[in-house]
Amino acid sequence: MRAAIPLTAPLSSGFAITRTLTAVEQRQAGVWSRGDIARVRVEVEAQSDMTWVVIDDPIPAGASHLGSGLGGQSWIALTGEQRSPCPCVAFEEHAFDGARAYYPYVRKGRWVYEHTVRFNQSGLFEMPPTRVEALYAPEVFGELPNQPIEVKP
Length: 153
Prior knowledge:
Layout: E1 11-13, E2 15-25, E3 32-33, E4 37-46, E5 50-58, E6 64-65, E7 91-95, E8 98-106, E9 109-118, E10 123-125, E11 130-134, E12 137-144, E13 149-152
Parallel strand pairs: 3-13
Antiparallel strand pairs: 1-12, 2-4, 4-9, 5-8, 5-11, 6-9, 7-8, 10-13, 11-12
């Protein structure tokens, strides 16, 4: 997906975001291939206390979330997923286009959200930015541009 004015640098208006992608299972080191499993770590730094905050983190087209409870998914791959104990997630949504986590209250400071995905399709995938937003104060948000991900056959 490409925006009319692409986001080229992180944007912070209340939330600063860092995002890392680490291999859980990777056929060839340093190269993503079909069937590889990656852990996505989103770290958020809040500049003040806020109510009802959502993290919206996209995944490549054709990738799938692990841990949804469907048959054939390995719970072993989820071992090591980390989440900050506070704030507590009120609701988590694993949609075909990304993961969303809703928090009823977050304190000033840093917290972590992780989710695990499997790459099921090969190709070069461009994704929209990762976004953190206060739902009832939309002027308080943060965006981080995502680099394209290439998945080999």
